[in-house]
Amino acid sequence: MMTQPINRTISVAPMLDWTDKHCRYFLRQISQHALLYTEMVTTGAIIFGKGDYLGFNQEEHPVALQLGGSNPTDMARCASEAQKYGYDEVNINVGCPSDRVQNGRFGACLMAEPETVAACINTMQAEVDIPVTVKSRIGIDDMDEYEDLTRFIEVVAASGCNTFIVHARKAWLKGLSPKQNRDVPPLMYDRVYQLKQQFPELHISLNGGVKTLDDAQLHLNHLDGVMIGREVYSNPYILAEVDKRFYQDHSVSKTRPEVVLAMLPYVEQQIALGARPWNIARHMLGLFQGQAGGRIWRRYLSQKRH
């Protein structure tokens, strides 16, 4: 049975090596409502890994787990674990183009296997009550016509998935690195807009190239949600206006210095648990981006990293 999606008007993209629990706690000091995503976690790490790959801070809500895998049984098992941990959503990665991910038969290569994704959705939704969503590209390699994208959406939606986050670039699985795949293929926003027109019953969010909240507002004239990635990481205080502008929450946002002070108890707590200070502070380098003294802030944190 499909569940209603949580409010995802503005979300922060899953970013490998970046959106860990420390980053998400920090971003939550700036916006109370933006939906936060974990880094992609594979089913193998959750099932066979020795670390706690699902741990997060309760203050991070709303928070979604992005899951990498293609075996329906394993995906369902991990979704069930995510629900036990208290995640608000599980998202299937159908967008990462790296060789390592392809070798594991998940990520963007699954756009060529919509039936596999649909089988995962069916099995996962039978185990959990939280939303199961999909993040994809607009196409891969030579499967990059609009008809290829709509067939993928139709098959997966028929399995019960009603929420799609679409990175508005295709992915070249051979010939481009993951970094190049974030910049080289052109953005095709109109194709995502067209999806929403064709499937008005689905919740469609857009990802890719969004740098300002004005950009986000323009996209929201056509779509249900906007996911912002690298711009949030390099300039996190962009989130300070999100609650008021998109969620009608007029509470006074923390100033940048207030955000720093709010992080101090967390830093002390995490150090006591064995965390290294730099693992937290590195996410805060961009807090004073564009401000007088911003370079001094970055240099000080980097020099005093230990």
From TrEMBL:
Q: Which Pfam families match?
A: Dus (PF01207)
Using the record's annotation, list all stretches that form the DUS-like FMN-binding domain. Answer: 12-303
Reaction catalysis annotation: 5,6-dihydrouridine(20) in tRNA + NAD(+) = uridine(20) in tRNA + NADH + H(+); 5,6-dihydrouridine(20a) in tRNA + NAD(+) = uridine(20a) in tRNA + NADH + H(+); 5,6-dihydrouridine(20) in tRNA + NADP(+) = uridine(20) in tRNA + NADPH + H(+); 5,6-dihydrouridine(20a) in tRNA + NADP(+) = uridine(20a) in tRNA + NADPH + H(+)
Indicate whether Nucleotide-binding appears among the record's keywords. Answer: yes
Q: Which residues bind FMN?
A: P14, M15, L16, Q66, K135, H167, N207, G208, G209, G229, R230
Q: What EC number(s) does the entry state? A: 1.3.1.91
Cite the entry's keywords alphabetically: Flavoprotein, FMN, NADP, Nucleotide-binding, Oxidoreductase, RNA-binding, tRNA processing, tRNA-binding
Site residues (Interacts with tRNA), renumbered to this chain: N93, K179, R182, R295, R298
Gene Ontology MF term list: flavin adenine dinucleotide binding; FMN binding; tRNA binding; tRNA-dihydrouridine20 synthase activity; tRNA-dihydrouridine20a synthase activity
Presence of keyword DNA repair: no
Active site as annotated? C96 (proton donor)
User: What is its cofactor?
Assistant: FMN
Give the similarity note. Belongs to the Dus family. DusA subfamily. Belongs to the dus family.
Function per UniProt: Catalyzes the synthesis of 5,6-dihydrouridine (D), a modified base found in the D-loop of most tRNAs, via the reduction of the C5-C6 double bond in target uridines. Specifically modifies U20 and U20a in tRNAs.
- Protein name in the entry: tRNA-dihydrouridine(20/20a) synthase
Q: Which organism is it from?
A: Paraglaciecola psychrophila 170
Report which gene this protein is encoded by: dusA
